[in-house]
User: Fold this.
Amino acid sequence: MRKEFPYNLLDTRLPQEGAVITSKLTSKAQTTIPQPVRAALRLEEGDELLYEIVDQRVIVTKVPREGVVGDPFGTFDEWHSEADRKAYGKL
Assistant:
């Protein structure tokens, strides 16, 4: 028996802009993000999505991940002096 996809591809031009895809909502209010959408947004496991409601439409946007911070003190401007680099640079 062939496995049914939880979404329908209505446009073969995917993942181009203006494409139309549908998916079904489960009884637990869940849906699968269709593969062409995941590809277009370059989604990976653990990515966050932003949902913006505009009129009767929802705009889904991938939330940018913060870069991996090599220096945990680098985000604090007050710790960017040369003295701090000398004192704490090898920690």
